[in-house]
């Protein structure tokens, strides 16, 4: 049995029933991406013409695998949150909206998992 | 269900372009560009797991004229979206809504993005030239 009133339970959750979770995660991943993207852009610029051996050496060096995996997670999470808002703003048909939201999220999972796999493979693989 | 006759917000065609509205839509546009950039990032990493040949063709794609133009676009988008994202967080904290501050911080994001893009290009081309 719930002791809280209906008003108390719904307060702060808003029309989408999730409160400030979307907003908060967008800020949190955004803050994480500030150092991660600045690091990545200059690191990637530094290996602009690398061949595979040099690239593997770079991916596996020191903290780079951790940075690349953190970048992958924060980037795809932030991307999904942003694309969700864009889709909700411009796609008005309910069917098309649900399909495009699912497509964006599933594609982000596929790409995110692929990136993490690639980083591990390039670090530990032969 | 939907009422088709609801009033519309001011049309873009009759609305005077302003730095505030321009930078606002640029934030969204660069965000969508960077979503595509995330796909290129995935392709780049995955190509390396398929061996030297696949990775060399990925590097050749990014090294081509069109590839370099795309990478410059991604670089500017990253730095603009980053700087304007920080501007958004200042607004979240309640700072910077006065018109003069909006204009100053707006121009600062543009200058920051342009300067960081040029700096990245210098690093990239000196690394590629030195190799």
Break the fold down into its secondary structure elements and pairings.
The complex is a heterodimer of chains A (126) and B (131).
Chain A: H1 6-10, H2 21-46, H3 52-60, H4 64-90, H5 94-124
Chain B: H1 19-49, H2 52-63, H3 65-92, H4 99-130
Structure explained in plain terms:
The complex is a heterodimer of chains A (126) and B (131). Chain A is an all-alpha fold and 126 residues long. Chain A contains 5 helices and no strands. In chain A, α2 (21-46) crosses α4. Chain A starts with 5 loop residues before the first helix and ends with a helix. Chain B is mainly α. Chain B is extended and about 55 Å long. The N and C termini of chain B lie far apart (63 Å). The mean pLDDT of chain B is 91. Classes of the chains: A mainly alpha (126), B mainly alpha (131). Chain A binds chain B through residues 27, 30-31, 33-34, 37-38, 41-42, 45-53, 55-56, 59, 68, 75-76, 79, 82-83, 86, 92, 108, 111, 114-115, 117-119, 121-122, 125, and chain B through 2, 28, 31-32, 34-35, 38-39, 41-42, 45-46, 48-49, 51-52, 55-56, 59, 63, 75, 78-79, 82, 85-86, 89, 92, 116, 120-121, 123-125, 127-128, 131.
List keywords for this structure.
heterodimer; A: 126 residues; mainly alpha; 3 helical TM bundles of succinate and fumarate reductases; elongated; B: 131 residues; 4 helices; 0% strand; extended
Write a brief caption for the model.
Chain A has 126 residues and is mainly α.
The helix tally of chain A amounts to 5
Question: How does the helix and strand content of chain B classify structurally?
Answer: mainly alpha
Domain count of chain A: the total is 1
Rg of chain A computed from alpha carbons, rounded to a whole number of angstroms = 20 Å
CATH topology of chain B: 3 helical TM bundles of succinate and fumarate reductases
CATH homologous superfamily (4th level) name of chain A: Fumarate reductase/succinate dehydrogenase, transmembrane subunit
Question: Would you count the extended β strands of chain B for me?
Answer: 0
Strand content of chain A: under 5%
Order of helices and strands of chain B: HHHH
Sketch the topology of chain A as an H/E string, one letter per element: HHHHH
N- to C-terminal separation of chain B?
Answer: 63 Å
Shape of chain B: extended
CATH superfamily of chain B: Fumarate reductase/succinate dehydrogenase, transmembrane subunit
Could you tell me the number of beta strands of chain A? 0
Radius of gyration of chain B: 20 Å
pLDDT < 50 stretches of chain B: none
Strand content of chain B: under 5%
């Amino acid at each position: 049995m719930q002791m809280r009133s209906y008003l108390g339970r719904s307060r702060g959750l808003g029309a989408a029933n999730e409160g400030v979770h979307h907003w908060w995660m967008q800020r949190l991943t955004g803050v994480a991406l500030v150092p991660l993207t600045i690091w990545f852009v200059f690191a990637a610029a530094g290996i602009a013409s690398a061949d595979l051996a040099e690239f593997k050496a770079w991916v596996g060096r020191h903290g780079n695998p951790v940075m690349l995996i953190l970048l992958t997670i924060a980037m795809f999470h932030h991307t999904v949150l942003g694309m969700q808002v864009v889709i909700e703003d411009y796609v008005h048909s309910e069917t098309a909206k649900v399909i495009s939201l699912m497509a964006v999220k599933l594609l982000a999972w596929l790409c995110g998992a692929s990136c993490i796999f690639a980083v591990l493979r390039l670090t530990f693989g032969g | 269900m939907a009422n088709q006759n609801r009033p519309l917000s001011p049309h873009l065609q009759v609305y005077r372009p302003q730095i505030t509205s321009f930078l606002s839509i640029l934030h969204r546009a660069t965000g969508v560009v960077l979503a595509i950039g995330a796909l290129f990032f995935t392709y780049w990493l995955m190509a390396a797991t398929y061996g030297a040949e696949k990775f060399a063709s990925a590097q050749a794609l990014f090294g081509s004229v069109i590839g370099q133009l795309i990478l410059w676009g991604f670089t500017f988008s990253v730095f603009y979206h980053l700087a304007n994202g920080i501007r958004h967080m200042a607004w979240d904290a309640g700072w910077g809504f006065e018109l003069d501050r909006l204009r100053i911080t707006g121009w600062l994001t543009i200058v920051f993005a342009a300067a960081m893009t040029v700096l990245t290009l210098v690093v990239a081309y000196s690394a590629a030239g030195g190799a």
